[in-house]
Please model this.
Amino acid sequence: MQELASLKELLANPQHIVITTHHKPDGDAMGSSLGLYNYLIQKGHHVRVITPTDYPFFLHWLPNNPEVIIYTEKIEDSKKYINEADIIFCLDFNSLSRINEMGEVVRDAKAKKVMIDHHLEPEDFDDYRHWSINACATAQLAYDFIVNIMQEPELVNKDVATCLYTGIMTDSGSFRFPTTTPQVHQIVADLIARGAENAKIHQLVYDNFSESRLRFLGYCLLNKLEVFEEYNTALISVSNDELDKFGIETGDTEGLVNYALTINGIKLAALIIERADKVKLSLRSTGDFPANEICKKYFNGGGHRNAAGGFSEKSLQDVISEFKSILPDYKSLLIL
Model:
């Protein structure tokens, strides 16, 4: 692993750079990626942002979003840019499996790889690493990279500030998660001072539902929510047919699991969704309950202590049954 500070010299001259992030990117993934993009283009670099898959429409307003390339839509172009890159920034993921079939293309590329991330247990594929599980968002680490490591705070213009604010806001749960430290608020204050319009950003991300998405939310809360009071746990499960019925698109299930966690006394919330190729599971928890442990041990996943995800090749009903069968093993932690 090379010293991160040495990147300053490497980035002093124009480079061919690719920025990528995990599949089905969220607000932090796109906010940090486009934040870094808007910073690097000011320095004269040739930069491409390539996402493994599509991402929610409520993030398409981010500055320079039209420049993003979706790998599954332009595979050959994407491979060309990756293979020609001098530097590849890997943002908001720490395992190449998180970028699907792009993973091996990135692994084989001659470029220097730079990981900027805040998830547990990073894979050793990178040459440079700016990593901390204590950061509330990758966008926080991107800010630190620009301001403190590269020592170029003057390049945090309105576009950069807008993107990084979006990433921090979304991954901190609108600044309510425990990782929202005084330092985070200081960073956010600086981003607002540099042009991030906080009220407008919140409206564009959270008050931008389609009618079908809102009706789907109501349907899930009325018909699909199960509460297990003896375990202080709540579960929402959704079939592929139900997704089709409401015309659910990428991002429309974002935040759904958090509604289950708002119930008084609930310590663990689960969202289990049947997709075309597999069943996906998202967990949220409060306090010290290890949601990531369940995902890693039983559902091929991982994540943060209070926010984790995984998947299974089993049927939807089998995954639901498996999740319920696990709860007695964690009862002592759930009823504390």
Summary: The chain has a mean pLDDT of 95.
